[in-house]
Fold this sequence. Notes:
The structure is a homotetramer of 168-residue chains.
Chain A: H1 10-13, E1 15-17, E2 20-26, H2 42-61, H3 63-70, E3 76-87, E4 96-106, E5 110-119, E6 122-135, E7 138-140, H4 144-167
Antiparallel strand pairs in A: 1-2, 2-4, 3-6, 4-5, 5-6, 6-7
Amino acid sequence: MSEPAPLLTGHLDGAIRDGRHTMEVRVYYEDTDFSGxxxxxxxxxxxxxxxxxxxxxxxxxxxxxxxxxxxxxxGFAFVVRSMTIEFFRPGHMNDVLEIVTTPQEVRGAxxxxxxxxxxxxxxxxxxxxxxxxxxxxxxxxxxxxxxxAMESGRSKVGAADAAGAxxx
Amino acid sequence: MSEPAPLLTGHLDGAIRDGRHTMEVRVYYEDTDFSGxxxxxxxxxxxxxxxxxxxxxxxxxxxxxxxxxxxxxxGFAFVVRSMTIEFFRPGHMNDVLEIVTTPQEVRGAxxxxxxxxxxxxxxxxxxxxxxxxxxxxxxxxxxxxxxxAMESGRSKVGAADAAGAxxx
Amino acid sequence: MSEPAPLLTGHLDGAIRDGRHTMEVRVYYEDTDFSGxxxxxxxxxxxxxxxxxxxxxxxxxxxxxxxxxxxxxxGFAFVVRSMTIEFFRPGHMNDVLEIVTTPQEVRGAxxxxxxxxxxxxxxxxxxxxxxxxxxxxxxxxxxxxxxxAMESGRSKVGAADAAGAxxx
Amino acid sequence: MSEPAPLLTGHLDGAIRDGRHTMEVRVYYEDTDFSGxxxxxxxxxxxxxxxxxxxxxxxxxxxxxxxxxxxxxxGFAFVVRSMTIEFFRPGHMNDVLEIVTTPQEVRGAxxxxxxxxxxxxxxxxxxxxxxxxxxxxxxxxxxxxxxxAMESGRSKVGAADAAGAxxx
Lengths: 168, 168, 168, 168
């Protein structure tokens, strides 16, 4: 917010491939509790980082369509309306978790995202998150350009999954 | 953990009445984010405090039935398996939120709790939380005494709600 | 911020006695890390709660002198400029810590506070915290009324300590 | 802890160059508070990530000398004994901060680190952190190999600074 985004932050922000956003998160002391594992609420922090970077990268890829909202402080953001979470396995200190964010349903005023925290091939946590789109501090209809960007992502996810299925 | 529970901590731990646990939580800087409201993941911290104190008070009220588990470090605890959360209204700096925890379904190996974060008569956040019971570091069948304590709570909730309905 | 402070929150906010503010804080899961003890940064959260409540109670006790600033959002606050912290003993899950805040030096534009986290007679963490006074979003000279309120506190601390010393 | 460190995590862990460890940290919602800036205690989380990764990379570079301690759970770690922090400038949402960790004094039982949080050429936060070395859950004399690794780092820092000074 305080200055233009640095040029090379892909190592921090993750990437969108086949319509899915993935990024890696290291588990530090701050993320664990005395029972020895990651404190459950901290997965929501990891998933919010994923959503923030997903929106950041969508905005970078489709700069023209985000231009009208860019002037308004504090910019645009997702706001969580509801979520369903399952905790399958414990995460541990020093784990590198992959946070995968996939758009599931894009409506006029809300978006449902599937978010997973994975460790290698293990699914650690999975959530379905319904978010509203906020710009200039207010919930708004999702801009058509953003909706198209996310929907084109969804069709790529479908195609990639189908291709993956054929390969097996 | 490090020493016996202090004698007078009711002002911190809340109370169980009519089968429901309630406690108050003040919103501090640490709980908010730059959008001006409580950061969504922090309601999970508030609700975990509610569950911890609910179990603490159940244990204090039914000391004899918790005695067998008390020797095992690090004691017994609820571990969250899944939850569904709705965010209805924003919480703000300095708010005093009431965290209300009500047992909904008590099974052999898991318990479903309804948890609400209220501000006066406003419902801010509501969650259904399925927890397993862990003692000595392992998930276990819920001790019969704890199950009875929670179920007697549930019937009181039902009776209190019915009485409330009659009064209206 | 969103509504008038509830009437009876002394059990949450602690109290000012002999110029010192004290409040109790329960250690929850969220405060610990996998090494089994309180994560070091979380003592700063506890001490910030102490400062916030100290200022809240000073404001309540001296309402007339805070009236001019009360209209300005987001109100007045302490902002930390520097601090020195010593970690003497580990804090543990379920501990009840007493957070003690004592004004040490009150200058025109900054205040130095001594803050301690105590468990019974044990000193767990001690910090010297230099804060600026912010109102309406900007650092300001400390209002004379606030300075007098804190200085009268300091003289009481001195008197109480001297009385305590005489008693021994 | 739960599995061998993944092979390629340099983008997460930062790097040691000229005896200094540097890594980048993105500021997310979770790191800010309603005053609009980074919550002060969260810089301690950033600096702890820096220390953890500094020790991780020292261990990877000097694997033979860490071998004896590697078997002991939960491994070796720095534990903070005291710190002095100055907050020079506010950090903001979306900032990319560089966390720079430099060994300053390496003694038998404790190490003093200089840690900076930088944004471009601006110094945001600076701390001097005295840590003890813990292995197998207990404070210990710092292994000679670790001490040599850090001291060789210190001499490189000195040489690099002198070279930098000559260039100006």
